[in-house]
Each structure stands twice: as structure tokens, then as C-alpha cells.
Known about the structure:
Strands 2-3-4-1-5 form a five-stranded parallel beta sheet, with helices on both faces. The model is unreliable at 242-248 and 338-358 (pLDDT under 50). Strand 3, helix 6 and strand 4 form a beta-alpha-beta unit. Helices cover 52% and strands 6% of the residues. Helix 5 (136-148) runs parallel beside helix 6 (168-179) and helix 8 packs antiparallel against helix 9. The protein contains 17 helices and five strands. 39% of the residues are buried. The chain is mainly alpha-helical. Zinc ion (ZN) is lined by residues 55-57, 65-66, 68-69, 71-72.
Amino acid sequence: MPAVKWNKLVAQERVKDVLGRVFESGALGHAYLFCGERGVGKFAAAVDLAMAVLCQCKDAAAPRPCGECPSCRRAAAYSHPDLHVIMPLCLSAEHKGGEGGALSEEGWALASASVRARIDDPYRLPRYDGIPHIPVEWVREADHAVMRGAVEGASGVAIIDGVDTMKKESANALLKTLEEPPPGMLLLLLTERVHSVLPTILSRCQTVRFPLLPPEVVGAELCGRFGISTSLNDRMAANDRITADDSITASDRVAAAAAAGSLGLAISEYENPLDEYYGHAASLWGDCLRGDWGAAAATVDGLSSGKDSYNVCRNTVSCLIRLIRAAFLRRSLSEVETRSLSEVETRKFGQGGVSMNYINPGVSGGLELPAEYGPDELSAVVRLVHGALNGLDARGNALIVMAGLVCSLMEALNVEKQ
Length: 418
Ligand SMILES: [Zn+2]
């Protein structure tokens, strides 16, 4: 088989290498689970690989997908009969007008428009107004299509994004297909929470891990997309240390967004800066650290009372996790730097070395850690905060989840003082 041409996937060289080699040797398995953080390239890789499989280029040696043949064009426009994509959606009443709350015509239109937009730009993450999930009938439809086998060529591909958000009946429908897929069918399952994927699904797939991207790669892509001067990015590429004293300019916003290590998250963060949520997170943490119940209650009340409380609370909790990590990284790096770096390295990278570039320069000063806290205490706290994130995603009432988080944080942060 010819080589894969990765048109959409940015960086992720190891993934390209692994998948590229199995494709070239014609040894592609029938089911893969792509796992990794949002926006690191799972969907982009899936689209590239699907198009490579479906490509009907006449030139046997040319890399695939060629992007020119009718098959490639239809796949790109999401009108190829052997390409099936499902992803989580947020449905409102008009989308569920069908029988027994099934997808209405508007619902199906939303589904295909969402897929088309995602194929067009896999790194532009969908913005949800609530908690997204995959509609059961969409899974069933794709499942039937997969079981029927390819209708045009010899191969067909199904991409299922957010496989962890599937309800039980959808997962069961998928299981049978995963057990005995018809020849020529390729299933690509995508998740950002591999621990939430049913073990029965996990065991039937080959897992491909997508690591976080280096900030300089994300920064370069952002600069390219938004036409930003690349001086700061050159500095990041040269491992020059970016400090919090750098004034906040467009390029510093790039550095702040790039620190997350995810291109998709960085794009949405660059367009909609999270400063406000970092502020909420830092003030909530400060309230809990001081043991100030009144202030914490007021903060929680403010966050969970608005119309968009799910997103506000979710963003705040995500920012809190990043702040805790940044504060811990900053502290541990300043403790180890002199031992692990040579004199030259210290001069080049600054104290803390190149890893300091992973610390978001805009936010890392915002959070104080209890002096006696070590890795164990911090990982326990991060687990608590992750628990709140899961609670929000599991349709928990935002006020109750946030109040629960405050109670746990108060206890965890003040245990030594009692
Ligand atoms: Zn082609």
C-alpha cells in the first residue's frame, strides 16, 4: 500500500509513524481506540486515515488521501456512502421532535452539519450549551451501515467521537459490531476519558495514545492561523524562557493558550480567553484556603445561578485544575533546578528549565499552595476537583456539585490547621 498523507493531523509524529506503517503494510486492524486530551488531533487523524482508506486514486504509488479523486471529495464533503461519523450533540426540544423523543428532521440536520464542520476543521472544537451525548438512533444507524458492509469500494469507515458519552444501549449496539465487523470495515473510536470507556469496548480495540503537544508546536499553529507575528513563538522554539513579566500582547495570549498542550483548546481559548474563569477559580481556592465559608458560598452562588451555569462552572473547575498543576510545577521545578540542570542549561532556560514553558505565563502566579503540601496531598486535591468536573458532566446540579467541591476543598486544605 502507498504511504498516508497526513493533511489534517498536526504534529503527533509517533502516531503518524505507527498508523502510517500499518496502513502501508496493509495490516490495518478493524478497530482502534484513539485516546487523548480534547483537541490534540484524534479527530484529525481519524479523518486522514478514513480518507486514506477510502481514496480511489488511480496512481498506485501516490500517497493517500490524494484529495482529488471523487472519493476524497465526497469524503471531505461528508457525502461518501461508506464514511460514517457520529459525535456527541446537545439537542434542544426542536431536535427531538420525532416519535418518543427520537431525532427530528432538524436533529438529523444538526447532526450532519456538526460532522461537516468538524471534518472541515477538526481542531475547531464544537461549543456546547449543555451536556452533549450521542443520540442512540444515530449509533444504530451507523451500526446498521457498518454491518451491511461497504456499498461502493471494498472498504468503509465509521468514526465515533466521544465514545465514553454513549449510553448503555448505544454501547451494546456497538459491541456486537466490534465483535464481528464485516471485512473491509474500519472502526475508529475516539475518547478523551479512556477510563470511562466500557472494558468490553476497550478489549476489542487497539489503543493509540495521543500525547499533549509541545507548546511551541501549538504556538506556531496558532500564529499561522491567526496571522500573529511569530517573534514570541521563535523564542519558545528556541526554548527561551517566557516570563510572567512579559507584557500581555497578542503573542502572550498565544503563549497562554498554547500552554495547555492542545491545539483545539488553544484555538478556542485564544478566541475566548478564559481569564474570567481563572479569576473565579483563584478566588474560590483562596476562599477555601482561608476557610472563609461566607466568601466561598457567595462565589459558588454567583457561578451556579446564571443561565449558562454548566459552562461557567465547568470552565472554572477546569481552570482550577490547571492552576493547581501550574503552581505545583512551578514549586517543584524551582526546588530541583540547580540539581538537574547544568550551568549552561540554567543560563539558557532559566530556573526550572524548558518545562517552565508549560506553565501558562498569564495565570501561574494566581494560586498559593499550602506550604506542607507534597505530591500526595496535591494529587488527592486534583482528584477532588476532577470529581466535580465529572459531577458536572454527569448532569449534576451545578450548585450542588460546586457546594460539594467547596466542602471537600475546605476539609482537604485546612486539615493541618484543625
Ligand atoms: Zn483520493
